[in-house]
Amino acid sequence: METYEILRDLAVIFISAKLFGLAARKCKAPMVVGEIVAGLIIGPCLLSLVHPTDFINQMAEIGVILIMFSAGLETNLQELKKSGLIAFIIACVGVFVPLAAGSLLYMCFYGFSSFGTDEFFKAVFTGCIMTATSVGITVEVLKELGYLKSRVGQTILSAAIIDDIIGIIVLTFVLGFKDPDSNTLLITGKIALFLVLSVILGYVIYRIFKFYDERHAHTRRIPIIAITLCFIMAYVAEKYFGIADITGAYIAGIILCNVRDAEYIDRRVSINGYMFFAPMFFVGIGLKTDFSTLNGSVVLFALGFVLVALLSKIVGCGGVAKLCKFKWADCAKIGVGMMTRGEVALIITNKGLDMNIIDHSFSTAVILLIIVSSIATPMLLKYLFSKDNAVAHAEQ
Amino acid sequence: METYEILRDLAVIFISAKLFGLAARKCKAPMVVGEIVAGLIIGPCLLSLVHPTDFINQMAEIGVILIMFSAGLETNLQELKKSGLIAFIIACVGVFVPLAAGSLLYMCFYGFSSFGTDEFFKAVFTGCIMTATSVGITVEVLKELGYLKSRVGQTILSAAIIDDIIGIIVLTFVLGFKDPDSNTLLITGKIALFLVLSVILGYVIYRIFKFYDERHAHTRRIPIIAITLCFIMAYVAEKYFGIADITGAYIAGIILCNVRDAEYIDRRVSINGYMFFAPMFFVGIGLKTDFSTLNGSVVLFALGFVLVALLSKIVGCGGVAKLCKFKWADCAKIGVGMMTRGEVALIITNKGLDMNIIDHSFSTAVILLIIVSSIATPMLLKYLFSKDNAVAHAEQ
Q1: Gap between the Cα atoms of B351 and A370, Å rounded
Q2: Do B17 and B279 meet the contact criterion of CB atoms below 8 Å apart?
Q3: ipTM confidence score
């Protein structure tokens, strides 16, 4: 392929991602839904204008690394500490109920298998995909409704953030066990070592970066050094610790989230992300989706997958909220608020595809889940909060 | 190669580019020199930490396209109209003097031969390789020095762009002699058609974009649409008109240089450029350098080739600038600014290799020319402009 041929692919991807993203927003759906649909339309599924190439995959990989780095940078450690125990409990239950339910669903469809087998691993991975709440969509909806700073809003937000961290730790452990020859103790040790090193070295890096940043604030070198740190951590995590590169990138973001220029770095990372790399990731998902494998059982599995993924979050998070003495109405809001899935579910699915853990029929299920949850959540939340208002009005 | 391996390459390239770039600035040399040196050091020439890959080449291609697009966006059309005729004359002389001098050099080394023979053709082709100025490095240096929008800067930029087009027309004619099947008239017609279409369609696109921009100023979609236009024009130029993609990108920039958000677009393009793509281009030049084929006679020819290529541009462009009533100091700047060679020289060399016109010793000479000119031009330009400032200060 001539080098200039990539320009054509890039042009088609950028413009279609933007067009369908805007169309999705007009339909009150998140823009990423539009970008995935763009990929479905321009890709081999429909128009065949663009085919997935190595270059597109590599750009997409950088895209997802930047998204995770940005998510890490935007983490508010103080807020996380304050919102404390309740959010943590909700997040834990919100991870483990879908994890168990997802695994069970897979086994119901494809047979029960004993611990340690490939099939058992696939089942657990299916659960893994269901764990991560998409903070982005939830935040945007709560903001739009004006309830982000309410107690319920703050609880959902903190739980969604903690849920991301727990989800990634769970994923890391699950992926560590992928290799049947692998030494369980060694993997657990590696992961523990990585987390310990992340805390210790992370703190050292944070102090050095903070010191340097205060002397060279708002210079070009700050975001470049930050991005380099992100890439090195992502690479080292995957290469030497067998931990997903996205986890490394996320931790790199958390390490830098309290430096003075965190927002400045995040802004530059985001500009690179939204202009070049993130559309490559979301459109790339559409490009890689292959409906030719669709058949009755896949569709049935996808429907079950969506149902279980949504209900397990509502029941898990809503239920534990009730135990934490929230009102029933608020429990419903917390459950619904936690049920959105987005880029993290896709990222985990992609990882699974790359590692040949799952097959392409899973993309279909996950894409369906994202589309359904990101359309249903805003509508349900709007309904639940408006009912609240109606009651409040009636009481006045 | 695992996808995550690119993260390591990127981290090494980014951090070394920044380090050597800053070191170059400390030594009062432009940062791009440091970036090229970084490529020589981390590449196969020395440390072999990073090897040129398809991905790096493609990122570098996007890098040079963004640099040219940005240069186009920063074009002052009023200034260009003013400098247009003079730039055209400088470009013409800047093509024909190196063409003649290069042919003569070949004949001095390998014997004079009569018109129409194979050897005569080789000589003319040697001249052809010397014709195209690589404006990328010069633009970056002029920007860094803050003289891109000066009269001299605009003259160099315009002349370098016109020089590209004339160089391509000359190459087309020369190749026409070699291959009796190629239709020289058709190719010349295509080039003319592209320029005419650029003006007509360019004006239409400008009006539409201006209209849209005024309704959606400062939104994310504006830079994305602009980049898409840039990529489409670069692609169409190369694919359908046989014109270098960088020329298409530059013209796309010129089309948008008068819209309200031109600066807003440029800022976003530049952030993408300096953070990701531009270092890939400059480091990439160093990475691709291979000194292993060097021997005595090749070195001698290469040295002659470099010397003639540089001097013929300085004498040709500087001399004709003097005839156009520029001051001697400005003539020197124009001559030096026009002497950089880059990817176009490599593309022409590649073409010659593919068609068995020249042998591999030419690659060494051309790469040496690119390295020497890309290191010498920034340093000389910086020196010439600083002398100017010193005079200006003395006069105050």
Answers
A1: 49
A2: yes
A3: 0.81
Q: Which residues of A touch B272 (CB under 8 A)?
A: 271-272, 275-276
Closest residue on chain A to B228 (Cα)? A11
Residue B30 lies in a domain: no
How many independent structural domains does chain B possess?
A: 1
Q: Which of B14, B220, B227 minimises the CB distance to A224?
A: B14
Quick check: is A70 in a domain? yes
For A135, what's the count of Cα atoms within 13 Å in the CB-facing half-sphere? 21
List Cβ neighbours of A355 (8 Å cut-off, separation of 6 or more).
A175, A178
Considering only CA atoms, which of A11, A241, A53, A319 is closest in space to residue B233? Answer: A11
**Chain B CB contacts of A220 below 8 Å:** 274-275
- Neighboring chain A residues of B3 at a CB cutoff of 8 Å: 57-58, 61, 354
pTM: 0.81
CATH number of the domain encompassing residue B330: 1.20.1530.20
Per-residue pLDDT 10s for chain B (396 aa) are 567 889 999 999 999 999 999 998 887 677 777 888 899 899 988 899 999 899 998 998 898 889 889 888 887 777 677 778 889 999 999 999 999 999 999 999 888 888 777 888 889 989 999 998 877 778 888 888 888 888 888 888 888 878 877 877 787 677 766 666 666 677 778 888 988 999 999 999 999 999 999 998 888 889 999 999 999 999 998 888 877 788 889 889 989 999 999 999 999 888 888 788 988 988 988 887 777 767 788 888 889 999 999 999 999 999 999 998 899 999 999 999 999 887 678 777 877 777 788 877 777 788 788 888 888 888 899 899 888 776 665 555
Residue B194 lies in a domain: yes
Residue A295: count of CB within 10 angstroms of its CB: 9
State which residues form the domain around B180. 60-281+296-395
Q: Is residue A232 part of a domain?
A: yes
> Least CB-CB distance to B235: which of A8, A54, A224?
A8
Of B22, B17, B18, B7, which is closest to residue B42 (Cα–Cα)? B17
